[in-house]
Amino acid sequence: MEKNWTGRAIVTLLLIVAAVVALLPTFMGNKNYPWMSNINEGISLGLDLKGGIHFLLSVDSEKALQDKMDRRSDEIRMRLEDQKIAFKSVKVSSENLSIQVEVADGVDKDKFKDEVLDYYRDLRRVAVSGNIYTLKMREEEANRVKQSAIDQALETLRNRIDELGLKEPLVQKQGNNNILIQLPGYKDIQRARSIIGQTAQLEFRIVAEDKDPVGNYQGETPEGIAIHQSRGGDKEGNVFAYKSATSSDRDLLLDFLNNRVKAPEGTEFLLEEKVLATGEKSYTGYLMNRAVYLTGAMLTDARVSIDQQKNQPYVSMNFDRNGARIFGEVTDKFTKRKMAIVLDNKVNSAPVIQSKISGGQAMITLNSSGGYNAMFQEAKDLALVLRAGSLPAPVTFEENRTVGPSLGADSIQKGKMSVMIGFLLVVLFMVFWYGIAGLVADFALFLNIVFVLAGLALFGATLTFPGIAGIVLTIGMAVDANVIIFERVREELRAGKSFTVALNAGYDKAWSAIFDANLTTAIAAFVLWNFGSGPIKGFAITLLLGIISSMFTAIFVTRMIFHFLHKIGYKKFSV
Asked: CA-to-CA distance for 430 and 426, rounded, in angstroms?
């Protein structure tokens, strides 16, 4: 039965036109041809070809465990208060990561055991001395917290980089505590460091004005530190005002507050930083309750908005249903008190709650004296990291380098050369060994390369140097199918069959061997693409596209060409 070769030829031509259109922005650029921007963005190049930014980050998983112990101590303190169990102190020892709970004399020890020791299953009692109980995190739980911090940091960093709109960035775990990040084509290294490195832990706390020890402080203050009265709602509260141009003075202020003023049980000192027009920094110290009522985990959105009166950008935030409920309850309970918005242990602002706030909305103002554009970019980046989520632990930049475009251009040139040499050698061999049939196979090989590149452009995949290696490998594999077919045809011709019969028999008999070989290779490539990353993934995707394309061009296209050659008079030619 005669196959519908004309219809198949039309399908092939349409695929060729689609591939050429997909590749136009890559080879011609869409800046000079705006209509092309509606097609696609062309082939995206990887870091090794395009240049960009390379980071290697280290996640401080020990700090995540320390934070977990701090939160657990706060929970124990609040539980003791709720259960009416008298206690003197709940302290965290940073040296051995333990919690020391000192209960009051005469406390019901059995009740304490039931309501605290047995309640927190992730803690174990390691020592008891009188009324002091020492608790430590169980080893398996501590390991889980550390591993979870690394996994969460990896996911958060992926979300932040996705917000930048980059194509095919690389974000992957490396070793035990490291994360590798590659941003192809991205050049603003300072902004990238700011977005990636910011912990962005957002908390809402109440200022402890009723416990402020500053008013009782009688000692001397270091030079540059001044104590003054500040009205906080309907109460007088004491705060520190401090001006400095260096970050070391900020540490001096914190050291003064922590070591000479002493925060009462359940509170800590945090600073608000403002940049003055002179470039100096002004710090205001707040005594903060350790209890955290809301966190950034309850946010559903964070966007840049503009204060029409001051003409300044700020970040507006929306809470989820649970967050909105808690926010309303807290603002109702603490009316006329200061609620502090704390970002990465720094007070962003501490406005007085005038009345209950419903609707689950809040705002973060920018404590900066920069121009409008700089403040808008700062607000935009802050909204980005808040939407992406906070890091569970600080990260340190172990490696920080840029890959210049000259190196990428050199890699591209070498890649082009390798593809052209490989293509030329295969073309010459096929023509030498199979004559006109070899030319047909070479045309199919050229189409195969076009389809692979078009597939990279259409699917938004990234072409890397290992990906070019995959294309070179595809060149050899693509003609392998035709070699098997042509050898089958030769066998049929030697048996005395006509060219048409021999050609059809060659394709039919070679099909199963070609399909099996390509299927097993495709499975291996799919596994590499699914579980690999970086260079391995780049190699696997070009190999997969090459296999699919070669099955079409080497079998379908070449057979169609032979059919039309036979129709126009080539009844008998060398194979």
From this structure: 6
Query: Which of 400, 424, 450 is a domain's end point?
Result: 400
Q: Which domain holds residue 445?
A: 5-51+405-567
Please write the tens of the pLDDT for every residue from 317-370: 888 888 889 889 999 998 888 888 898 888 888 888 888 888 888 888 876 666
Is 160 inside any structural domain? no
pTM for this entry:
0.65
C-alpha distance from residue 307 to each of 316, 346, 363, 519 (Å): 10, 23, 11, 61
Q: Which residue, 369, 400, 431, sits at the end of a domain?
A: 400
Round to whole Å and give the CA distance between 397 and 406. 25
In a domain, 275, yes or no: yes
The residue among 503, 346, 347 whose CA lies nearest residue 338 is 347
Computed over its alpha carbons, how large is the radius of gyration of the chain? 34
The two structure tokens encoding residue 407? 């190196």
Burial of 327 (0-12, 13-18, 19+ CB in 10 A): buried
For residue 156, being part of any structural domain is answered with no
Nearest in space to 48 (alpha carbons), one of 418, 405, 399, 398 = 405
Interatomic CA distance for residues 443 and 437, integer angstroms: 10
pLDDT digits (tens, 9 = 90+) for 89-148: 888 887 778 899 999 988 888 888 888 888 888 888 888 888 889 999 888 988 999 999
Phi, psi of 435 (to 5 degrees): 65, -130
Query: DSSP readout, 353-368?
Result: --S---SSEEEE----
Report how far apart, in Å, the C-alpha atoms of 153 and of each of 93, 199, 521, 544 are: 25, 9, 35, 31
Residues 66 and 110 occupy one common structural domain: yes
Is-contact 313 333, C-beta < 8 A? no
DSSP designation for 279: S
CA nearest neighbour of 298 among 340, 360, 344, 348: 360
- d(Cα 248, Cα 225) in Å, to the nearest integer? 14
Structural domain contains residue 158: no
Rounded to whole angstroms, the Cα distance separating 204 from 385 reads: 17
User: How far apart are alpha carbons 383 and 316 in whole angstroms?
Assistant: 8
Tokens of 60: 């401080």
Structural domain total, the chain: 3
Q: For the packed helices 558-567 and 499-531, what is the interaxial angle rounded to 10 degrees?
A: 160
